[in-house]
Amino acid sequence: MKLKKLEIHNIASIEDAVIDFEAKPLADSNVILITGETGAGKSTILDAICLSLYATTPRMSNSEMDGTWQENDTDKLDITDTLQLMRKGTTEAYAHLWFLGSDGNEYKAEWHVERKKKNLSRTWSLHNLSHPQASPMVGNGKGSGKDKEIVAAIQAAVGLTFDQFCRTTMLAQGEFTRFLKSGKKEKATI
After folding, report:
1. At 133, phi and psi to the nearest 5?
2. Cα(175)–Cα(156) distance, integer angstroms
3. What's the CA gap between 66 and 76, in Å, rounded?
């Protein structure tokens, strides 16, 4: 799998950003290190990639927090719901990722959430750009039957499950600290 382009809108600390992995200097790099001050959006970039591909993030799926949260008169959300990543005070957020799959096809994976009055909606889709005649796969990122189809298609395109992707492709902040403090056996597992 090769990342081509990432577009982020209203996710956590990032209002709008486009990262073109095929433009210099990123195009010339085999390894990318994300650095910056606290709150600059380093983890949000990783979140956006994971949201696009898997409709979840390590930050949310590994959280040990419990409970619900409600803003104004909208639906109550589980504290680990990915909708929590939508920037406060906004009505729409999305992450779009263009990538070359391990199967040689080009894809666009999209995660989109929208808040209209009292309703929250979410869509998660995968488009095979190498076969534009093929219908996109669309789900809601909440574990529906359609989501299971997208998960299978993403795993085939990327060649990795969500857990494998997180372990092999990125090492988020908490995991990096855990990695540094671990013994040799646990480092191999991480």
Report:
1. -70, -20
2. 25
3. 13
The helix or strand, by DSSP H or E, that contains position 2, with its residue range, turns out to be: strand 2-11
pLDDT in tens, 93-128: 999 999 999 999 999 999 999 988 777 788 999 999
> Is pLDDT of 63 > 50?
no
The 10 Å Cβ neighbour count of residue 67 is 9
How far, in Å, are 27, 55, 93, 123, 140 from residue 144 at the CA level? 37, 12, 21, 11, 7
Identify any residues that bridge with 110 across adjacent strands, giving them in sequence order: 96, 125
The structure tokens listed for 163 are 């857990």
Q: CA-CA distance, 155 to 54, in Å (whole number)?
A: 9
Residue 185 pLDDT class (50, 70, 90 cuts): confident
Nearest of 87, 114, 116, 108 to residue 16 by alpha carbon:
87
Residues 6+ apart with CB under 8 A from 61: 80, 162
pLDDT of residue 75: 56
| Residue 5 CB contacts under 8 Å (≥ 6 apart), including other chains | 18, 19, 20, 21, 22, 97, 98
